[in-house]
Amino acid sequence: MEGGNIRQWLNFLVCALLLLIAEASYVPITYLQNAVAKGAVCLDGSPPAYHFDRGSGTGINNWLVAFEGGGWCNNVTTCLSRKTNRLGSSKQMAKQIAFSGIMSNRQMFNPDFYNWNRIKVRYCDGSSFTGDVEEVNPVTKLHFRGARIFAAVMEDLLAKGMKNARNAIISGCSAGGLTSVLHCDRFRALLPRGARVKCLSDAGYFINARDVTGAYHIQQYFSQVVATHGSARNLPQSCTSRLSPKLCFFPQYLASHITTPIFFVNAAYDSWQIKNILAPGVADPEGHWHSCKLDINNCSPDQLDLMQGFRTEFLRALTVLGNSSYKGMFIDSCYAHCQTEMQETWLRSDSPELEKTTIAQAVADWFYERRTFHQIDCPYPCNPTCHNRVFGPEDDHQGKNVTSKGTSDASARKLNFSKLTNKAQWIELVCINGGINGLLLLTLGLMRGDIYMGPSSIL
């Protein structure tokens, strides 16, 4: 076994043991069994689900509803492939998941939202919760019911106290980030008129751009998603009344008409968009972009030029937002995808910054109207705080939310040795930093007395 693999396994084992010791706050799954009778079901007909960590103290009437990402399925074949995994069936979902970043319940890692009611809505419809086809094919038995899932989840949460919300956010990452855009005003309409309600889209600003061959591959792909799921009737009418429904899957064509305040967190070199919009496999059959898409450090000068051109187009698509304080943005120059639900990019000592401000600070300041935030980073590679992702080859294909296999040197450049006051905080920091760095942190904590492994500890 190679040294890197040994190190990876050691990291995994250490963190698994430490998380057991810390009794980490995993959040159990809730299945909406009563939604089945309403036809609000996953692709395979199983009930929708979410994870709910209740608020406390000053956050008891504050609600954060985050929608999971996971790409889309654009035809019967790709939707069928999801029936056997968590993106199409709640039967395949983990019974509990950990919350981090904006979902964390620890004040030091999430100071402004830690004690809110925090809900993670699982994604199993493949349409960013827009589909609604009554007929079920007797052969495939596929259910295209994403919009019904959205309605059923909202109804359930309102009954559980969200109807009394004083503050509320709808958010999500990737396809979930698009969900928060498409359903932003709909979410606002469900809540009390006097409540502060806003929307947050993380890596959900997908743009209608040409690929490296000059074709609009992503436009065709979204058109197929809309047609397969019958999404047109559930897309914002402010867009479909003006444009073809296939274009209304792109935030650039509807964001200016969203009346609810909304904040966009996005990388100008969004790794999913580079891999699937600028250089999708169909536009690069010989794989010239393969290495570049996995690690931006491998890109040739010509490829970087094309990526700079993509950034220019991305920023042009953002101009529809204008300078309104209602529409905030944190657009960094990292090669990344999804940054609000990962602790390392949400709030940590070396998290990405714009104007000396982390994503967590920017979002909170904007939400609580402490200040506006409308920042766009300088071009790559100007920002030394970036966490540029390095992906494994298995992550290089259409329609899948990629998973980080590592980060740039920026993430390991410095360690946070600030005093942490409880065991769970130390454990989380160990696993966030990973490997040797994490073990160094743990050792330091033990030496300084900041963490104490009691008699029940296996260490």
From TrEMBL:
SUPFAM superfamilies xref list: alpha/beta-Hydrolases
E.C. number(s) listed in UniProt: 3.1.1.-
One Gene Ontology term of the molecular function aspect: pectin acetylesterase activity
Keywords on record: Cell wall, Cell wall biogenesis/degradation, Hydrolase, Secreted, Signal
Record-level GO cellular component terms: plant-type cell wall
Signal peptide: 1-24
Localization terms from the record: Secreted, Cell wall
InterPro entries: AB_hydrolase_fold (IPR029058), PAE/NOTUM (IPR004963)
Any GO BP annotation: cell wall organization
Protein family membership: Belongs to the pectinacetylesterase family.
Protein task: Hydrolyzes acetyl esters in homogalacturonan regions of pectin. In type I primary cell wall, galacturonic acid residues of pectin can be acetylated at the O-2 and O-3 positions. Decreasing the degree of acetylation of pectin gels in vitro alters their physical properties.
Protein's name in the database: Pectin acetylesterase
UniProt source species: Vigna radiata var. radiata
